[in-house]
Amino acid sequence: MATSKKAKPAKRSATTSRKKKPATIARGRSPAKATTSGLRSRSEAKSAATLTAKHSSTKQETVLGMLRQPKGSTVAAIAKATGWQQHSVRGFLAGVVKKKLRLKLESKVVGEQRVYSLPKADASL
Q: Can you give the pLDDT at residue 36?
């Protein structure tokens, strides 16, 4: 009994199966760097970069600001401000605030809620 084998399709080389990326992206350059280097002076580019850096804030800064308030903050309030789930807030408090940043985190029960805060000595750090 004769069996027929199907012909295998030819293998594609790596260059033909992928689209090439533009040179600026392939080298890891950001488009903003490429456009500002020739159009602006260095001082103008530097001042533009510092303006954008001053206006951006991170969720970490938001949480630390809430903890530095005199009354402190609850897990629910931090979760609402950051968009995180409550278990993520607790993980951030333990992993980042306590371990990575080595800040002393105080907690106390007020009514039926637990309130977290940073002592005033750590607020200056």
A: 47
Q: What residues have CB less than 8 Å from 106, skipping those under 6 apart?
A: 72, 116, 117, 118, 119
- Provide the residue ranges of all domains of the chain, joining segments of one domain with +: 55-117
Bridge partners, residue 113, by sequence: 110
- The 3-state DSSP class for residue 106 equals strand
How many residues belong to the chain? 125
> What is the assigned CATH class of domain 55-117?
mainly alpha
117: pLDDT strictly greater than 90 = yes
pTM: 0.53
Alpha-carbon distance 124 to 109, whole Å?
25
